Every structure is written in C-alpha cells, then in structure tokens.
Amino acid sequence: MSVTAARGFTAAGIAAGIKENGGKDLAVVVNHGPSHAAAGVFTSNRVQAAPVHWSRQVLADGKVRAVVINSGGANACTGPKGIEDTYATAETTAGLLDVDTEDVAICSTGLIGVLLPVGRLLTGLETAMDRLSAAGGEDASRAIMTTDSVPKTSSVTREGWTIGGMAKGAGMLAPGLATMLVVLTTDAALDSDVLDKALRDATRLTFDRVDSDGCMSTNDTVLLLASGASEVTPEYAEFAAAVREVCDDLGQQLIRDAEGASKDIEIEVVGAASEDDAVEVGRSIARNNLLKCAIHGEDPNWGRVLSAIGTTKAAFDPNQLNVAINGVWVCKNGGVGEDRELVDMTDRAVRITVDLSAGTQSAILWTNDLTAAYVHENSEYSS
Amino acid sequence: MSVTAARGFTAAGIAAGIKENGGKDLAVVVNHGPSHAAAGVFTSNRVQAAPVHWSRQVLADGKVRAVVINSGGANACTGPKGIEDTYATAETTAGLLDVDTEDVAICSTGLIGVLLPVGRLLTGLETAMDRLSAAGGEDASRAIMTTDSVPKTSSVTREGWTIGGMAKGAGMLAPGLATMLVVLTTDAALDSDVLDKALRDATRLTFDRVDSDGCMSTNDTVLLLASGASEVTPEYAEFAAAVREVCDDLGQQLIRDAEGASKDIEIEVVGAASEDDAVEVGRSIARNNLLKCAIHGEDPNWGRVLSAIGTTKAAFDPNQLNVAINGVWVCKNGGVGEDRELVDMTDRAVRITVDLSAGTQSAILWTNDLTAAYVHENSEYSS
C-alpha cells in the first residue's frame, strides 16, 4: 500500500531529532534494483531549496539509488551552508549504502530560512539504514509529515507489477506542483525516459491541478523510481494510467488533509475553447478567497465565481456563462438561474461546474475552503 | 472635506429601502457647472455590472451632470432587466434634474446576481433630489457603504480651487482597481482630456496598487467631475499631484477599513529592473495567504516572502534577494540575515521592503493581513 509496495524497495522512517517535538523526521527509500531508472519533477518556483538544486542534478542521468527525506526544516534560503548540508547528507547516505553520492536524491520540508541540525541528521541516517525493510514504507510516510494530520500512501497492482507511493503536503499547496513531496516506486522494468514521460503526463493532470491556497513551495519534488524487480515491462498506456491513478489518489489525499479545510471543492470547467483556458478559469476560481469563504459558510455565492472568471483571459462571453453548484444551475447565461435555495451544501464535498460556452475542452481542479482554522494554523507559529 | 468640498456640487444620501437593514443606500452627486467635464476609470474585470456598461457610455463624451450610486445590490449578472433598471435610474434622474439621460452616470454596489428593488430606488430618487445640498457630501458618503465600517472622504485645497472625494470599499479589494466606488469632484476649470490623464496617472499609483484580498470586483468605478466653478485652471502637474493626493488618502482609508484586517501592510519593492517587475513582485507578496496569516500572527516569516517572489517572472537572482520587515533585514543575499527576534511587529502598520538587486526601479503596494475575522465576515452571509 505504501512506497515499499513494489518489489525491490526498502524504506525506513525514524526520529533523528530534527523536529523539536521528537516525532519521526527522517525517511530513507532505497532501490535495490536490478534497475535504478528514475524520473523527477520539481517546483517551478524560482526560489528553490538546496535539496531541489541537488536532486535536479541527481536526476539528470535518470538514475537514483536512494532518496533521503527530512521534515523539520526546508533547507531553503540557507545559502552555501544549505548546499553543503544537502551534499553531506547525500555523501553519508552513499557511504552507508555503498553507492555513488550522485545517485542519492534529497528532499527537505519544513520552515524556510533555517539551517538543518545536520549532525543529528547524519547520525540519524545510520539508524535509518539499520531499519531499512520492505515493511518500512509506513514509517517513511510518517517521517515526511509536517502539518499533515495523516500519512498519505497509495498503490496499484497490475499483472505482475506494482506502483506504490507516499506524499506529504497540507499547506502551501499550489500549482507548478502543489506543495508537496512525493516518492513513487515501481517494480516495472522501464527506462528513465518512459518514467519521465509517464510522470509528467500524470502530474500535469493531478498534482498540478491541486491548488489549496495558491502558495507555491520552494521544495516541491515528485520522484518516480523503478527497480525492474518484476521483470515485467508494461505497455506505456497501461503504465501511464497506473501512475496517474496513484498520483490522483495521493493528490486527493492532500486536498482532504489541507490545513483547516472543512470542504473539498472540485471545480470542473467545461465548454472551454482550450484546455489551457479551462485550467486558467479553474485556477482563478480555486484562488478566490471570497468564494472560498462563501463555500465555508455553505453559501452558493455564484457571483463570486463569475467575478473570478472575469479576471481571466480565457475565451468566453459574459452573457453565456453558466455555473452549477452541487448540480444546481444557479447561474444561466451570465444571470440568475435556478433558485439558489435548492443548493444543498451540507456535505464536505462541493462541486462547482462552469460552462464557458466557448468550445469543447475541459479541466478539473481541486481546492478547499478558506477557514478560520487555516488562519489560526498559519498565524500561530512559523511553518 | 467630502465630495461637496469643491464649489458647484451638491449631494444627498438617503435610505430608499434597498438595503434590508434600513440604512442609507442611495447617493446622488450633482455638478451644477458651469462646466460638466468628467473622466472615469472602470474595473478591468470582464464580467461587468450593468451600471459599469452604462457609465462607460456616459463618460465617452467626457461630460457628466450627475452621479447616482446605490448600495444594497451590485446589479451585476442581472441580464437585460439589470440594464433596464440602470437605464430607468438614469432616465428618472435626468427628468428630475432636467438634464440629458446620457449625462447621468450610475454606480451600484452590493451582492452580485440579485435584481435591485427598482421601484423603491426610483421613488428614493425624488426624496434625494429634495435633499441635495452643498452640505450633502457626508450623507452621500454614508449611503454608498456596504461592509465599510466608516465613511471615507477626502479633500485638498490649493490656491483658489479644491478637489473633494468619497470612496467605498472594504472587501473584494484588488487590482485593475481595488474594488471600490469613488467619486471625485473639483471646481477647477479643466477639460475632460486633462481630467482623464490626471485620473489615470493617479489611479495607476494609488487604487491600482491597493490589493487587499486579490479579488476583483465587477463594479469598480472611479469618477472625476469638474464644475469649473472656481474659474481657475491650474497647471497640469499641480492638479495631477492634488488628484493623486486625494486618491492616495482614500486608498489608505480603504486599506485601513479592509474586512477583518488587524495589520496594514506596506510592501516596498526596490532595486527592480522595471516598475512592472516591482509591481508584479509586490502584488505576488500582497496575495500570499500564508504570508498574510504570518503577519497576522506577528511572525516575520520572510521565507514566505521569498516563496512569493519566486513565483514571479521579474528579473532577480535568488541569491541576491534582500528582505526587511519593519526595518530589520531578516533576509540577506537570499539567506538568513539579521536576527528575526529583532523585528517588532506589535504596531498595526507593517512595512516589508524587498530589494531585488536587479536595477533602480521601485513600487509600493498596500495590503493587509488575513484573519479569522475576514473569514467570518465573508462566510456568514452573502455579500
């Protein structure tokens, strides 16, 4: 069910003393092969953490032997010392596993602008290596949590091969990857080019369309590692669909655990002239604070949907916009539609459908409501 | 001090029964000339309310005799009936004042997607006309309030001439005009081209740089009416500076009254390669929910500033970014700077300075913190 669901992988998750609360904060995932093909996608934020700089380099040759992830500190905006600490982490891991340093990817998550307690981290690595096991995925998924309230794992199994994965992320969830760390593993036998294509195809439609709070992280990383241990090479379409399924499941888990959220909002934009238009409109709605407050208050305030659509460059005629909330078309032809009193918003799941009446393309995005709990969580301590 | 500070203008503000709470909800401002030159700027939202469509047409010939503003309903997304109601308002006003219908500008503010009680509005116009007076500016400024907690007025007087104004706006405050209605009046003798240039120059640097919650309204309108009653024609530079001063003052009042806000945040971006870059960076920071929560919690979380900067296309090197919060350079060269414990955030006013180290251009934007009170105000009832 987790990052060790596929054959050829072991993992561990331990408390290394990086988090002040003593919780698990260091995860290691090791690919025991025979193949070490890998692909990765990273945050499009131009301010990037040291581990992102490092892991981009590691992924350049499409090969990863191990991934080390720490919570308790993002190691972002930490200058040359931050790079040094990331390198030391990779080097120590490589020594312990007897692999090349350049095949060790690093991810960090936590507060920006604070140096990691690197001594404790390096000591922790030794402990983590002792605990590596094919049952270690669950511990690993706990060790990468920050403000997450639950660990997030997923897996799918097809004929002879499996994809497993874990994710973390609850705030600073936005596009160009929702803010998150994700490690996916598979025992399928595929080269890194195929992994890269499947991963990009999947993230484009899943993690890239999760926009919880419009804030983009400095540390986003999604990795896909293939051990080849199944000795099965699936068809591309089948493999890509499975990767997307796992990404979709993990993305939904991220939204459901978003900081302070009380409503999960699915925004479906149809009738768009292009998919880009549909995504732009969906994202504009997902980021509208006033609408997100209204949804929190179970108020089907479609005027706020229209005012959000109106800020985009998408093709549409304002007099041909239609909006449904939970299936009730409260806005027709840009004006008042069905009675808003008919909208039942008591469920946690809310579905907003926008018909731009401008074409045949569509997209789905996910967000959540804006609540006082989000404000509390993000104002009461640094994160 | 108000919209009737300049000679040649009368105003009134009455309760016409549009607002359910019985408060003042209908304002009229009349220009008695001798000149009726006018200029206007409107929301850049592509979904525009009926009164915006109408008033754009009215302003086309640079002439306005009267402005009617109602609160209690935005008359946006109201279809043909909405247009009809706006036209009826202009027509009735024109009849009562014996002016051309096409010289009556209309503004509306309130909930989107609800038809106005136009009968009550038209009846109210008669009452309002009876109450028009040179002392009516104060009442008018109260009649345009929605979630505003205080009326907002301003004026400046130069040698022989005056500019006065009023504004409303507390939520849905964002760019391409902060969400607001503003009426400015002057007794200076200037033609509409000069008014237009002065108004655009001023709004670009004031209202356009107020970004309270990133949400853009369907009804934004800023009007400048000149009566020429002073018979003084000031130099352009002097007049433009005075218009900007009034707009700046009203813009600051909008920010100070923003829904739920406990901190007024000034964001100064310096060292930019272009003014556009500075504005893009400032706006990105102003819209970062996580940062706005941190400021609410008096947490000088500069990492969230950097992650916001990183989402822009502005020219900068991440390793040369500097950030000061209330004068303490907590981030230097993209990394840890002065001790964040030195930052005193107890005052309501917070100043964030970003040095992009990429040029000599700069810009200042204003926003406020994100609070539980904002969520409550925008989730507990439709607005």
UniProtKB/TrEMBL annotation, chains A, B:
Sites annotated Involved in the stabilization of negative charge on the oxyanion by the formation of the oxyanion hole: 109-110
Keywords associated with the record: Acyltransferase, Amino-acid biosynthesis, Arginine biosynthesis, Autocatalytic cleavage, Cytoplasm, Multifunctional enzyme, Transferase
Major place of residence: cytoplasm
Residues given in the record as substrate binding sites: 146, 168, 179, 259, 378, 383
Active site (UniProt): 179
Gene: argJ
Top-level taxonomy: Bacteria, Bacillati, Actinomycetota, Actinomycetes, Kitasatosporales
Assembly and binders: Heterotetramer of two alpha and two beta chains.
GO terms, molecular function: L-glutamate N-acetyltransferase activity; L-glutamate N-acetyltransferase activity, acting on acetyl-L-ornithine as donor
The protein's name in its UniProt record: Arginine biosynthesis bifunctional protein ArgJ
Gene3D superfamilies cross-referenced by the UniProt entry: ArgJ beta chain, C-terminal domain, L-amino peptidase D-ALA esterase/amidase
GO process terms (BP): L-arginine biosynthetic process; ornithine biosynthetic process
Endpoints of the signal sequence: none
Originating species: Streptomyces mesophilus
EC number: 2.3.1.35, 2.3.1.1
Keyword Transferase part of the UniProt annotation: yes
